[in-house]
Amino acid sequence: MFNIKDNYMEFTYKDKRLRFYGFLLNGHVYNQFISFEYGKIDFKNKTVIDIGANIGDSSIYFAINGAKEVYAIEPMPKLFNYLTENIRFNNITNIIPLNVAIGNEEGLIKIPNIDVGLDAYTKNFQNSENGNIIPVKTLRSIISEYVISENIVLKIDCEGCEYDAIYSLDNTTLDKISQIALEYHYGPYKLSEFLIEKGFKVEYTKPKRYNEHEIGILYAFK
Q1: Which residues are 17's β-sheet partners?
Q2: How far apart, in whole angstroms, are the C-alpha atoms of residue 29 and residue 23?
Q3: What is the pTM (predicted TM-score) of this model?
Q4: Exposed site from 74, 86, 155, 181, fewest CB < 10 Å?
Q5: Residue-level pLDDT at 37
Q6: What residue stretches are annotated with the Methyltransferase FkbM domain (predicted)?
Q7: The domain spanning residue 34 has which CATH number?
Protein backbone atom coordinates (compact mmCIF):
# COMPACT_ATOMS: atom_id res chain seq x y z
CA MET A 1 0.00 0.00 0.00
CA PHE A 2 1.31 3.43 -0.99
CA ASN A 3 1.66 6.03 1.73
CA ILE A 4 1.90 9.46 0.11
CA LYS A 5 3.16 12.47 2.03
CA ASP A 6 3.81 16.02 0.86
CA ASN A 7 7.36 15.33 -0.26
CA TYR A 8 7.73 11.56 -0.51
CA MET A 9 6.04 8.26 -1.33
CA GLU A 10 6.52 5.25 0.94
CA PHE A 11 5.49 1.62 0.46
CA THR A 12 6.57 -1.94 1.22
CA TYR A 13 8.08 -3.99 -1.57
CA LYS A 14 9.28 -7.56 -0.99
CA ASP A 15 9.33 -6.99 2.78
CA LYS A 16 11.47 -3.87 2.34
CA ARG A 17 10.10 -0.44 3.22
CA LEU A 18 11.00 2.00 0.45
CA ARG A 19 10.75 5.77 0.31
CA PHE A 20 11.05 8.01 -2.75
CA TYR A 21 11.52 11.75 -2.57
CA GLY A 22 10.67 13.82 -5.65
CA PHE A 23 8.08 11.39 -7.00
CA LEU A 24 5.47 14.15 -7.50
CA LEU A 25 7.74 16.01 -9.91
CA ASN A 26 9.33 13.12 -11.77
CA GLY A 27 9.98 9.43 -11.71
CA HIS A 28 7.73 6.53 -12.59
CA VAL A 29 7.58 4.67 -9.30
CA TYR A 30 4.33 2.88 -10.11
CA ASN A 31 5.59 1.77 -13.54
CA GLN A 32 8.77 0.35 -12.02
CA PHE A 33 7.50 -1.45 -8.96
CA ILE A 34 3.97 -2.47 -9.95
CA SER A 35 4.12 -3.02 -13.71
CA PHE A 36 7.84 -3.04 -14.49
CA GLU A 37 7.95 -1.33 -17.89
CA TYR A 38 11.24 -2.92 -18.96
CA GLY A 39 10.13 -6.43 -18.09
CA LYS A 40 11.62 -8.11 -21.16
CA ILE A 41 15.22 -7.65 -20.02
CA ASP A 42 17.09 -10.09 -17.79
CA PHE A 43 19.37 -8.02 -15.55
CA LYS A 44 20.03 -10.45 -12.69
CA ASN A 45 23.74 -10.78 -11.83
CA LYS A 46 24.53 -8.28 -14.59
CA THR A 47 25.80 -4.72 -14.68
CA VAL A 48 23.07 -2.21 -15.53
CA ILE A 49 23.80 1.22 -16.95
CA ASP A 50 20.72 3.33 -16.27
CA ILE A 51 20.86 6.42 -18.50
CA GLY A 52 18.20 8.85 -17.39
CA ALA A 53 17.96 7.46 -13.87
CA ASN A 54 15.71 10.36 -12.81
CA ILE A 55 14.94 10.12 -9.05
CA GLY A 56 16.42 6.61 -8.87
CA ASP A 57 13.24 4.54 -9.07
CA SER A 58 14.41 2.33 -11.93
CA SER A 59 17.96 2.06 -10.55
CA ILE A 60 16.68 0.98 -7.14
CA TYR A 61 14.35 -1.54 -8.78
CA PHE A 62 17.31 -3.08 -10.63
CA ALA A 63 19.51 -3.00 -7.53
CA ILE A 64 17.12 -4.81 -5.19
CA ASN A 65 15.98 -7.32 -7.82
CA GLY A 66 19.30 -8.96 -8.54
CA ALA A 67 21.48 -6.61 -10.58
CA LYS A 68 25.17 -7.00 -9.79
CA GLU A 69 25.67 -3.22 -9.84
CA VAL A 70 23.89 -0.23 -11.32
CA TYR A 71 25.45 2.91 -12.78
CA ALA A 72 22.72 5.54 -12.34
CA ILE A 73 23.34 8.39 -14.79
CA GLU A 74 21.31 11.57 -14.31
CA PRO A 75 22.45 15.01 -15.50
CA MET A 76 19.61 17.20 -14.17
CA PRO A 77 20.80 18.71 -10.85
CA LYS A 78 17.43 18.64 -9.08
CA LEU A 79 16.72 15.04 -10.10
CA PHE A 80 20.25 13.96 -9.17
CA ASN A 81 19.73 15.35 -5.66
CA TYR A 82 16.58 13.24 -5.30
CA LEU A 83 18.42 10.25 -6.77
CA THR A 84 21.23 10.38 -4.22
CA GLU A 85 18.79 11.05 -1.37
CA ASN A 86 16.67 8.03 -2.35
CA ILE A 87 19.72 5.76 -2.62
CA ARG A 88 20.93 6.92 0.80
CA PHE A 89 17.58 6.71 2.59
CA ASN A 90 16.82 3.23 1.21
CA ASN A 91 20.34 2.03 2.09
CA ILE A 92 21.14 0.72 -1.40
CA THR A 93 24.82 -0.16 -1.68
CA ASN A 94 25.21 -1.41 -5.27
CA ILE A 95 24.26 1.80 -7.12
CA ILE A 96 26.93 4.20 -8.40
CA PRO A 97 25.28 7.61 -9.05
CA LEU A 98 26.87 9.72 -11.79
CA ASN A 99 25.91 13.35 -12.35
CA VAL A 100 26.88 13.44 -16.02
CA ALA A 101 25.12 13.94 -19.36
CA ILE A 102 25.51 11.49 -22.22
CA GLY A 103 26.43 12.88 -25.65
CA ASN A 104 28.34 12.03 -28.80
CA GLU A 105 31.48 13.84 -27.63
CA GLU A 106 33.14 14.89 -24.37
CA GLY A 107 32.59 18.34 -22.94
CA LEU A 108 30.71 20.45 -20.41
CA ILE A 109 27.15 21.75 -20.29
CA LYS A 110 25.39 24.19 -17.99
CA ILE A 111 22.04 22.83 -16.77
CA PRO A 112 19.58 24.90 -14.72
CA ASN A 113 18.29 23.52 -11.42
CA ILE A 114 14.67 23.22 -12.57
CA ASP A 115 11.80 20.76 -12.69
CA VAL A 116 11.84 18.91 -15.99
CA GLY A 117 9.64 16.79 -18.18
CA LEU A 118 9.58 15.57 -21.76
CA ASP A 119 11.81 18.44 -22.94
CA ALA A 120 14.71 17.47 -20.67
CA TYR A 121 17.04 16.52 -23.51
CA THR A 122 20.28 18.13 -22.35
CA LYS A 123 20.98 19.72 -25.76
CA ASN A 124 17.99 21.96 -25.06
CA PHE A 125 20.08 23.57 -22.29
CA GLN A 126 23.36 24.05 -24.13
CA ASN A 127 22.86 27.82 -24.35
CA SER A 128 21.79 28.24 -20.71
CA GLU A 129 23.43 31.17 -18.93
CA ASN A 130 22.66 29.96 -15.42
CA GLY A 131 22.90 26.57 -13.77
CA ASN A 132 25.30 23.83 -12.72
CA ILE A 133 28.21 22.87 -14.95
CA ILE A 134 27.85 19.15 -15.72
CA PRO A 135 30.35 16.93 -17.58
CA VAL A 136 29.22 15.45 -20.89
CA LYS A 137 30.60 11.98 -21.59
CA THR A 138 30.07 9.38 -24.26
CA LEU A 139 28.63 6.06 -23.21
CA ARG A 140 31.80 4.47 -24.55
CA SER A 141 33.94 6.56 -22.17
CA ILE A 142 31.74 5.63 -19.18
CA ILE A 143 32.15 1.92 -19.94
CA SER A 144 35.91 2.35 -20.37
CA GLU A 145 36.41 4.58 -17.29
CA TYR A 146 34.60 2.19 -14.95
CA VAL A 147 36.13 -0.90 -16.60
CA ILE A 148 32.78 -2.56 -17.31
CA SER A 149 33.94 -5.54 -19.31
CA GLU A 150 30.97 -7.65 -20.40
CA ASN A 151 27.30 -8.59 -20.18
CA ILE A 152 26.09 -5.00 -19.86
CA VAL A 153 22.38 -4.22 -19.76
CA LEU A 154 21.45 -0.73 -20.95
CA LYS A 155 18.30 1.04 -19.83
CA ILE A 156 17.94 4.41 -21.53
CA ASP A 157 15.26 7.04 -20.98
CA CYS A 158 16.92 10.38 -21.58
CA GLU A 159 14.37 12.35 -23.63
CA GLY A 160 16.31 12.16 -26.91
CA CYS A 161 19.93 11.41 -25.99
CA GLU A 162 19.37 7.73 -26.83
CA TYR A 163 20.50 8.38 -30.40
CA ASP A 164 23.81 9.99 -29.40
CA ALA A 165 24.34 7.28 -26.78
CA ILE A 166 23.90 4.40 -29.22
CA TYR A 167 25.40 5.85 -32.40
CA SER A 168 28.63 6.87 -30.63
CA LEU A 169 29.42 3.26 -29.61
CA ASP A 170 32.21 1.45 -31.40
CA ASN A 171 32.11 -2.27 -32.19
CA THR A 172 34.36 -3.20 -29.26
CA THR A 173 32.01 -1.50 -26.80
CA LEU A 174 28.89 -2.90 -28.46
CA ASP A 175 30.32 -6.40 -28.00
CA LYS A 176 30.14 -5.83 -24.21
CA ILE A 177 26.41 -5.05 -24.34
CA SER A 178 23.99 -7.98 -24.24
CA GLN A 179 20.61 -6.23 -23.82
CA ILE A 180 19.12 -2.80 -24.38
CA ALA A 181 15.79 -1.39 -23.27
CA LEU A 182 15.18 2.22 -24.21
CA GLU A 183 12.43 4.75 -24.66
CA TYR A 184 12.79 6.33 -28.09
CA HIS A 185 11.48 9.83 -28.71
CA TYR A 186 12.00 10.45 -32.43
CA GLY A 187 11.02 7.11 -33.92
CA PRO A 188 12.64 3.65 -33.74
CA TYR A 189 13.51 2.96 -37.36
CA LYS A 190 17.08 4.20 -37.75
CA LEU A 191 18.02 2.95 -34.28
CA SER A 192 16.59 -0.45 -35.18
CA GLU A 193 18.53 -0.61 -38.45
CA PHE A 194 21.77 0.38 -36.72
CA LEU A 195 21.42 -2.23 -33.98
CA ILE A 196 20.42 -5.01 -36.37
CA GLU A 197 23.56 -4.27 -38.41
CA LYS A 198 25.55 -4.68 -35.18
CA GLY A 199 24.14 -8.14 -34.52
CA PHE A 200 21.18 -7.41 -32.24
CA LYS A 201 17.67 -8.75 -32.54
CA VAL A 202 15.33 -5.79 -32.21
CA GLU A 203 11.67 -5.27 -31.39
CA TYR A 204 9.76 -2.12 -30.56
CA THR A 205 6.32 -0.87 -29.68
CA LYS A 206 4.25 1.13 -32.14
CA PRO A 207 5.21 4.82 -31.94
CA LYS A 208 2.81 7.18 -30.21
CA ARG A 209 2.78 10.78 -31.38
CA TYR A 210 3.20 13.61 -28.86
CA ASN A 211 3.75 16.99 -30.55
CA GLU A 212 6.93 16.50 -32.60
CA HIS A 213 7.85 13.31 -30.77
CA GLU A 214 7.34 9.69 -31.79
CA ILE A 215 7.58 7.77 -28.52
CA GLY A 216 7.76 4.08 -27.66
CA ILE A 217 9.95 1.33 -26.19
CA LEU A 218 12.69 -0.48 -28.13
CA TYR A 219 14.37 -3.72 -27.01
CA ALA A 220 17.56 -5.18 -28.44
CA PHE A 221 19.09 -8.54 -27.56
CA LYS A 222 22.23 -10.47 -28.50
Answers
A1: 12
A2: 7
A3: 0.91
A4: 181
A5: 77
A6: 50-190
A7: 3.40.50.150
